[in-house]
Design brief:
Blueprint: H1 4-16, E1 27-28, E2 37-38, E3 45-47, H2 50-60, E4 64-68, H3 70-75, H4 77-86, E5 89-98, E6 111-112, E7 115-121, H5 130-163, E8 168-174, E9 180-186, H6 194-199, H7 211-219, H8 226-232, E10 236-238, H9 245-254, E11 267-269, H10 271-274, H11 283-295, H12 299-312
Parallel strand pairs: 1-3, 4-5, 10-11
Antiparallel strand pairs: 2-3, 5-7, 6-7, 8-9
Helix pairs in contact: 2-4, 5-8
Length: 319
């Protein structure tokens, strides 16, 4: 992040030294200096807005931000705050002076590829209590899988008899840090094509869906297989709902806060869902609730959300 000339020089130096531990994936520069696209000298994408920077961060799993020049910290304050909030480490680099620190050349001890560096924003690291969250996920999902096993078996047999083979629906979703995973559900609808499955928003009111499939969706029983995703570590019991790659790209362009939802492992239920934001509801509202959940996360909040989700099974609304 910084003036184009200085950012190019730092990026070129890092590309020449892959052993330094940092691989540049983009340059954030002022729109007055460059019009975006690909930088001719470094070959890296040039990002001119906070939205572009956050989208690139999610797509590339960025962990480190290098700020070239102290003045940039003021000019790009909005961008840097957004990147820091996502959990990146922010370093300020002096692109004009070589590093002559005590003890000679020591990678990571005040320099990077020969440039002097200073920590601006330390990465939060592992969120306090995250081990407890994962333990809760493993214990509850494992127990619920055992308890729900007979129910899932009955549902699978009924679907097999009524709809034929292929009772398990597998679909690519985007999880923590923008990493894709395969989410499991009981099949309640057969898409006409892979394109429809990837790009059609909702089939909740599909007319050719059987009454049993409508029942599964209304009671959310079709979602129970995601307990296996939780047990494996693809998802959490509580977190932002995962979405398909097509819609992640679409919503990230329309809603600046959408990429930040991927700071935490996605979940089967969440703060947005217990406030009625399921199915065809406002994406902007979901972003706000999901990011508020992450910013104020606690294990007690997870327990409360799970209890409220369980209560909603008494009066199911479906998805």
């Amino acid at each position: 992040v910084g003036p184009v000339a200085a950012a190019r020089r730092v990026a070129a130096a890092l590309l020449r030294q892959p052993g330094c531990g940092v691989r540049p994936v983009g340059v954030v520069a002022d729109e007055r200096e460059v019009r975006g696209g690909i930088d001719d000298e470094s070959g890296l994408p040039v990002l001119t807005t906070a939205q572009d920077a956050l989208r690139a961060l999610v797509q590339n799993g960025v962990e480190t931000v290098l700020v070239v020049g102290a003045a940039t910290r003021v000019e790009k304050a909005v961008v840097l705050r957004g990147l820091a909030a996502y959990g990146c480490v922010l370093w300020e680099l002096d692109a004009d002076s070589p590093w002559y620190g005590p003890g000679g050349y020591r990678e990571g001890a005040g320099q990077l590829a020969g440039f002097s560096r200073r920590l601006l924003w330390p990465r939060g690291g592992r969120r306090r209590g995250s081990a407890g969250k994962r333990a809760l996920d493993v214990v509850l999902s494992g127990s619920l899988l055992v308890l729900a096993g007979p129910v899932l078996l009955v549902c699978a047999v009924v679907l097999r008899v009524m709809d034929g083979p292929g009772v398990v629906f597998r679909q690519e979703r985007i999880g923590k840090d923008g990493r894709p995973f395969t989410m499991l559900k009981l099949r309640t609808h057969r898409p006409a094509s892979a394109h429809e499955a990837a790009t059609r928003w909702s089939v909740a009111n599909e007319q050719d869906m059987s009454r049993f499939c409508h029942f599964l969706r209304r009671t959310s029983l079709d979602e129970l297989l995601q307990l296996w995703n939780v047990f494996r570590g693809d998802m959490s019991l509580v977190g932002p709902r995962p979405e398909r790659p097509y819609f992640v790209a679409k919503f990230s362009q329309a809603h600046p806060g959408y990429p930040a939802r991927h700071r935490m492992r996605t979940g089967m239920t969440g703060l947005a869902q217990i406030h009625g934001l399921r199915g065809d509801t406002s994406i902007e509202d979901r972003c706000r609730y999901d990011n508020a959940y992450i910013d104020n996360w606690s294990l007690w909040q997870d327990v409360c959300i799970l209890l409220r989700t369980a209560a909603q099974f008494v009066r199911p609304t479906g998805s």
